Amino acid sequence: MADSKPKTSSPSIDPNTSNQLTSPSYVYVTPFTIECGPELKPSMVHKELLCTHSPYIRDLCATAQSYKEMIFSLDYLRRELATSVQGGNNTSSNAERIKLLLKCHTHFPFPSARDSLRSTIKNQTHAQIINAKNLLPDTKPTLPPSDSLHERLTSLRPSSVRKIAEATLEKLKKIQTTETATASHDAHKAAAQDKLLLPNTSPLAVQLLIHWLYTTKLAEVAPVLPLCELLDLAARFRIARLVQLVTGRLVATIVAQTQMPSGGLGGALAAFPAALPATLPASEHPLQDASSVDPSSSAESRPGAPDPPFLALLRYTHAHAAAPRPLRKLVVETLAWAAGPEDVDAAAQWLDHDMAVRLAMALAGRLKDAREGRVESGLVERLGGEGVGAEKREEKFEEKFEGDGDGVVE
Predict the structure, then answer these.
(1) Do 280 and 351 fall within a single domain?
(2) 236 and 322 part of one domain
(3) Global confidence as pTM
(4) Which of 220, 298, 312, 315 has the largest count of CB atoms under 10 Å?
(5) In sequence order, which residues have a C-beta less than 8 Å from that of residue 389 and are 6 or more positions away?
């Protein structure tokens, strides 16, 4: 499994180059945090690598660039104002504070907080200027108008300007805290801070993704449920190669289950309690291979043990209405062509309308083939070879890739 905190190096890779693939000759420089699970556990990956493989992440980071520049401007103003507040009350320090206050008032980067910040500066300036003790000795008897901020600030003693700067600094800190907090539910704001938030994805699925990003190979041992999550991520991130690989692994796992000595799915679904949870408990993500479990034994007889592969797949598609098409197709085709009547009956209630209709059509096709005396297709043939053999082709590709030396595939 890949390290959770990648090392930084140089030079960087252009994230807009979509046909570059990972290679030992490449180095990456920008840490990117993927926060996953209910507790938002952080995992680190290199941004350039993620953008190279994922058009979705690349586009997301590009559209977040303008917001990222706003974040940089806010942080710059906060740091500069903090430095000026720590300075003394001499003429040069006071002039720098006034310059920064005017910049905050006139060129603050966040439109949503601009009026609030201006009000803070205006009110703090008014509170200082109405006290004659705060004015410079040579200030005219008539105070500058409220809309002449520069004149008002330059008429105040340095100590008073410093108090205005301190209040403005606190306001900037609150704005920065608010913007950081809103990133927890805004993908573009999170991307601008080099973060990706996946609260509904398990840390194991994210580690499987990171492992593939750095090796272009699937982990040798991976349970079905995290593989389903990984396929979901690959589809969302538009990583076609990974979609094909994971689909192939899941198809091979389900086919292996149907070829067990017990035959078919072994009544695994019929023996399962008539209640599938709407959410996936943490215990369903063990670091062990669920595909090695005897599919003929029920989960009831194996407390704490992972579900047989197909049952785990059915759980996932039931709990996730927007599960990727390859997962939904695998469920339907397995039920239609490899399940017994008792398993079809047990599973049917956990299918949504679309999957139920597709299952009915597939069963009707199977019945038609039987009536016409056609040779019944196997599950692999019915799936159209989706992903089957993808890992072997990937291994051959990697051998060629490593032999080319330049790391660029045409």
Answers:
(1) yes
(2) yes
(3) 0.70
(4) 312
(5) 248
